[in-house]
TrEMBL record, chains A, B:
This is DinB family protein. Pfam families: DinB (PF05163). A divalent metal cation binds at H44, H127, H131. Keywords: Metal-binding. Coiled coil: none annotated. One of its GO terms (molecular function) is metal ion binding. Belongs to the DinB family. It comes from the Bacteria. SUPFAM superfamilies: DinB/YfiT-like putative metalloenzymes (SSF109854).
């Protein structure tokens, strides 16, 4: 579980570096599919990871911050770093026994559902990988090579 | 680990069903990014999962079958089912202790590297989720709603 979070964080950093060579208007341009732009995708990944992990830690929901307040590469990176400092200790202290703990969540329509903690962790992992796949298509549209999605050859198991 | 494979298999089946409503020429159309078409992506996902798991089971490499022999929805589905029958028992019998086993692999350039078995399993999981993210962009290009990538609300933990 932890390795997949580490993979996501490493890939995310690679994409932040990739963004440095791209004009900000390209990063903010509305595109087909996903949540609509490169930067909004990175912002959304950061926000969803933070809000679910915060919920596991505290059973409290967080409001999504308005993207307008973070619509630049430097601001999304800063938000990612800020949230990362909050959630990394929680994830690093994860044990397999925590997978089967249960938690109840209520959505905006008032519907309540019960989840396993491990299910939420895996949902967050898959969420980021899925959206990164969308970035890889848009990278080619911009005429650039995307960041590799390979999990091997990243030194995660050394 | 097993839950993430089950997630991928369920999402893959959803995409096969999604494909049934799309003209085959759209499924085979060359697109920007990824491996180039919806059907080739599904074929590639199926092939990569099978070849890595086969390698973990037998330490033998498999050749990639030629896509020309599988370039229809029914043939890719049949290949997926055939391979699934071979690899599912291996994945279902996975235990956490197997994660740390090591295996050496040699690529086509003769370079050898050592991997953990768990690292290969996670590489295969991330590989499928990443490519499915690409399909979701192409679905919108075709004017269709993509399959949900949510891991929650799939009954995986019931």
């Amino acid at each position: 579980m932890k390795k997949l979070f580490q993979y996501n964080w490493q890939v995310r950093e690679d994409w932040f570096r990739w963004c440095e060579d791209i004009p900000e208007e390209e990063l903010l341009k509305k595109r087909v599919g996903g949540v609509g732009s490169v930067l909004y995708t990175l912002f959304h990944i950061v926000d969803v990871e933070q809000s679910w992990i915060h919920f596991l830690k505290t059973q409290q929901n967080l409001e999504e911050p308005p993207f307008e307040d973070y619509a630049s590469l430097s601001k999304v990176k800063a938000l990612s770093n800020q949230f990362h400092a909050e959630i990394e200790p929680f994830i690093q202290s994860w044990t397999n026994e925590m997978d089967s703990l249960t938690i109840q969540a209520t959505n905006s329509k008032g519907q309540t559902a019960t989840f396993r903690h491990g299910e939420i962790m895996q949902h967050v992992i898959a969420h980021e990988i899925h959206h990164i796949g969308q970035l890889s298509v848009w990278a080619r549209e911009i005429g650039r090579e995307p960041v590799t999605a390979n999990l091997i050859f990243r030194g995660l198991y050394e």
